Amino acid sequence: MCGGMFIALLDIQIVASSLQDIGGGLSAAQDEISWVQTAYLIAEIIMIPLSGWLTRVFSTRWLFTISAAGFTLSSMLCGLAWNIESMIVFRALQGLLGASMIPTVFTSSFYYFQGSRRVYSAAVVGTIASTAPTLGPVIGGWITDALNWHWLFYINLLPGLAITLLVPTMVRIDKPDLSLLRGADYLGILLMAIGLGTLEYTLEEGTRWNWFSDETITATAWIAGIALTLFVLRSLTYRNPVMDLRALGNRNFALGCLLSFVTGIGIFTTIYLTPLFLGYVRGFSAWQTGLAVFSTGVASLVGTPVYIILARRFDTRWLLMAGLACFGLSMWSFSFITHDWGAAELMIPQILRGFPQVFAVAPSVTLGLGSLPPDRLKYASGLFNMMRNLGGAVGIAVSAAILNDKTNLHFERIVSHLTPANLPMGQFLQSMTERYAVLPGGPAVAHSAALEQLWDLAYREARTLAFADAFRAIMLAFVVATLLAPLLRKVGAPKSAPASH
């Protein structure tokens, strides 16, 4: 089951460093390529909250099996896609069908592991949840360079088939209850799907279309706000809602969801920003980008046994606080980024980011979900996992807006100093003009080429400063999360296994 969760999370970011290759292979326009990732995220964020109800209907065993089989089939279809439209449809199917494998693992770990053993299970699940998206660009970049982009999806076929065959023979947790289909809150499901789908679209596409100056973005934002408001009201008043929002009345669960949201901002947004910087500022290839971010995944794996050892001796609330603080420190160290940063310069900030990931994720799972009674766990787990993905969507949207606005601001400030009174600038232009003097067209063409070179340098520095601003914004989110962590209550070990799970 953890294997299924890993490949489902890996595929969120496995295309991140290979979008240009996919776009070239499918003859897609620049503004269409991002939908290879967006379609998956929209479908996944809609399905994850429904997983609790679907587990009650079909049972953990068969829901996971169906999800693994559907994910495997849609992965094959993605590899066989013949144009960008078919790829977007198949990626949406992949996210929709594979999403249930993520929250189901969280709830199943609480069934299989009791008492102090939950420290181990939470550490493993937390590591997978944080490491799989981080490894996505690394594995994706290597596959694309070594083989081709089709294998980004074919790589899922063998493990997906194995999981599909093994889960029905090994998983015995609960039994299906098809009678729940009769009294299901279908209106609530529709409102949630519309609300989350349009919200994800607004967050993903807002920056590209200048937010509310675009009619479509404005319309989807209104639809998301109205649909989600109606969904909340419906869920709080309907007898059998598809998502247990009442669980937010539990302090630990509410804080756990908030911390999951912030952790999602940190994990997904840095995965978005780092390859973007390396690709556009440094000009790295997919494989070079993967190698540069590889230290994050290694540090995350090293952090897991350390967390398990410390969790035996110390209150997990303080480990959580330390993990969030270390993640914030990493973002602060990222804010000193310059245009010549590569794998060597990124290593320390990425170790500071990767090592505490399990410290930030595992305790929030234990303290947040572990504070709920077993009969509420399935419904609440979907909400908990959705918050992490939603945090990633919000973080990416805000960071993209910061990059857009701050790049322009920094560029204007830099250019304001590039006047004839600036002697170093004059010397630079003179040397560049002499270098380009060999070009046909005479001095005028050489001077124009020198000015273009100066413009490129100014824009590069402005963009780098904007990346630093984005990392500082993420740091502020972790400062707030660190201060909230002590408000969590300690959770005692349950006396017995949740047999009625």
UniProtKB/TrEMBL annotation:
User: Where does this one sit in the cell?
Assistant: Cell membrane
Topology within the bilayer: Multi-pass membrane protein
A Pfam entry, by short name: MFS_1
**Ranges where the Major facilitator superfamily (MFS) profile domain occurs:** 1-489
Q: Which domain of life is it from?
A: Bacteria
In alphabetical order, the GO MF annotations are: transmembrane transporter activity
- Signal peptide feature range: none
Q: What is its main location?
A: membrane
Q: Does the keyword Transport apply?
A: yes
Keywords of the record: Cell membrane, Membrane, Transmembrane, Transmembrane helix, Transport
Question: Membrane-spanning residues where?
Answer: 38-55, 62-82, 88-113, 120-143, 149-171, 183-203, 215-233, 253-278, 290-311, 318-337, 386-403, 470-488
Gene3D superfamilies tied to this protein = MFS general substrate transporter like domains, Multidrug resistance protein D
Asked whether the UniProt record includes Signal among its keywords, one would answer: no
Give a Gene Ontology cellular component term annotated to this protein: plasma membrane
User: What family does this chain come from, according to its entry?
Assistant: Belongs to the major facilitator superfamily. EmrB family.
Identification of the protein by name: DHA2 family efflux MFS transporter permease subunit
In which organism is this protein found?
A: Acidisoma silvae
